[in-house]
Amino acid sequence: MDLRFSKEQEQFRSDLNGWLEDNLERPWIEELRDPENNEKTLFELRRSWQGKLYQAGYLGIHWPRQWGGRGLTIVEHAIFMADTLQAPPIASRVGINLLGPALIHHASEEQRQRFIPKMLSGEEVWCQGFSEPDAGSDLAALRTRAVPDGEDFRLEGQKVWTTFGPWSDWIFVLARTDPEDRYGGITFFLVPLDQPGVEVRPIRQITGESEFGEVFFSGALAKREHIIGEIGEGWKIAMTVLAYERGSMSLAHPARFDHNLRDLVRGVEENGTLERPDVREKVGRLLIENEVMRANGFRTLANMASGGTPGPEASLEKVFWSEYAQRLADSALDLLGFQAQLQVGAPGARQEMNWGHEALWVRAGTILAGTSEIQRNIIAKRILKL
Length: 386
Ligand SMILES: Cc1cc2nc3c(=O)[nH]c(=O)nc-3n(C[C@H](O)[C@H](O)[C@H](O)COP(=O)(O)OP(=O)(O)OC[C@H]3O[C@@H](n4cnc5c(N)ncnc54)[C@H](O)[C@@H]3O)c2cc1C
Prior knowledge:
- The protein is about 50% helix and about 15% strand.
- By secondary structure, the chain is of the alpha+beta class.
- Strand 6 and strand 7 form a beta hairpin.
- The radius of gyration is 21 Å and the shape is globular.
């Protein structure tokens, strides 16, 4: 099997890296270190960086041109994801990675024209309103209701763990249009957050940030023209979203871990423990596991590059990267000791990696986008046919 990129893909990579050199003022980690920045300024930075990327043709890389994309393939998109890890993350990650595929597969042409370009440019930032206090793993238990109001609907209910809820302009919502039909009674709505009947409350996380929040609906307007698909087709569309949520980062995770591993190896060299057999074994195992992850990522990518959609193999990747991220961060805290626990910017802290933050943040990885237990159920049933 030849896993090398083609000449055109190598050219794309080199153009991208040239563009980054000219346009990226400083790495994201320096923005995080800058005491002048706060959550709001950092988010605005992400939004303006997204605008720049869009203008340069680096967003929607593998999406059709008629909706603002660049018409290349998923491989160029994966190269982009892997090579821009030092840059600010885009503001509309949830919109582009999750809602984007749902719009491409299920929306009307008018809806695609209306929503995709502004999503790509960052003019409209999106969040995902699926989970509720009593509907997470069992998503079909959701109770947010969409009550008919003339042509349109009014939303009543609550969403929770809504990533970027506090910063977003729009939310895509699963709401119940038929209380009797568990799966067929769910509809997929696009809803603006800035309107009466919507309240967004930030939730403070263990990292100290409020990246996500709760969204309360009390009579918010959900327009008929902003339903994706038909009334009652929400579950089917949600499945597209979830498959892309689990499978959209095939090469980005191993590339991110390359960076983290480099810092770990540098750290154990500096503290003189790399020669110890137990340390070498631990670091060696982490390096090998990252290569296993990359190989799996190539498999998903190859499937998608030949026209497939992410299937149950995305669950394999999800379990692997999320649990690996915890093993890696815990190992760094063990092997680098006190130095790794200091926040970036503190005297004596490591300069390239904020391991303390990483160790707290990666706890969420085995919960978000479907817990490890749920992924293992999927692997057991759909891959191993147990
Ligand atoms: C950082 C973060 C960001 C998130 N962002 C969003 C977002 O933007 N939008 C959104 O809609 N949601 C979001 N979520 C919510 C996420 O999708 C849910 O937390 C997740 O699906 C789990 O649901 P739950 O929290 O209700 O846990 P529960 O479903 O209550 O699960 C509790 C425990 O029971 C286990 N369990 C449940 N059912 C089974 C079963 N059948 N078999 C075996 N074990 C089971 C679970 O694995 C878990 O350990 C986010 C979550 C996190 C942590």
